[in-house]
Amino acid sequence: MKKELELFRNYLKNTKNYSRHTVRAYISDVSHFLESRQGAEKTSPAAVRKYLAGLYDRELNVKSSGRKLSALKMFFRFLKRKNIIKKDPTAAISFPRMPRDLPPVIYRNDITSILANLPREYNFLAVRNRLIFEFIYSSGLRLAETAALSTSQINETDKSVRIRGKGNKLRIVPLTKRVLQLYKKYLPLRQTQLKQKNACNDYIFINRYSRKISVRGIRKAFSNVLKQIAVTNNIYPHMLRHSFATHMLENGCDIRVLQEILGHSSLATTQIYTHLSRAKLKKNYQRFHPLARINN
Length: 296
Known about the structure:
This protein is mostly helical. The chain has helices at 2-15, 20-34, 45-57, 62-81, 108-117, 124-139, 143-147, 177-196, 215-228, 238-250, 255-262, 267-288, and strands at 154-155, 160-164, 170-174. The chain folds into 2 domains: 2-81, DNA polymerase, domain 1 (Orthogonal Bundle), CATH 1.10.150; 108-285, Intergrase catalytic core (hpI Integrase, Chain A). A hairpin with a 4-residue loop joins strand 1 (154-155) and strand 2 (160-164).
């Protein structure tokens, strides 16, 4: 199956435009299944069901088993289109019901407090870290999208940033005046940093070695800043994206507009944030309405 897997890998990378991480995950999931098989042409629906049942027996969570089934479905559909197999053994197999886990959100008061207490020193790292924080929260970017940002993606006239997201999809996201002001303040410090290291690149967020910052680097910078300002809550940078989405909906943003800003291909993905807003609404109702408190 090495030949088929390599064809599938190229399809994911070149046709679907998936990231390296996503391609690696799909290939790993399919390889795990095929290890015990004698080839894709020998695979039956019963074999797939038995494999999934084995995952449940090993107490693999529903999301993980659903992801593996998704990889298998895509793999066998691909083989069928290429006439490598005659029948797709996963065609009649349904996805397991997924639990709806609500994404963690930072309360608005906490975000306001963090922003107010971020280090105000005028140096490269302090301004860069502040800009990363405000960029993610004001535009709802993913960490990988933030790390990959280049100066050419910023349109100061239009007050927007051009994002190349998952699946290589392009979207335009508005920027706040506050972020643009901080961005202009940061650029000279970035340029000085590049000159000191005799480096040249177009990435907005660079590390102390003047190379593109990694997602791990963003997490580390975020953690260090929170320690500096004595924030002990379990807060991580991707929560800023969740918080952005929830706060936008709470302020009346149209859900389809939010879907576009976040770069979700499915509206269902965006709708999870409506559950957060409703949960807060219900909590406030039960707390403040006199009749709601009678039986509590």
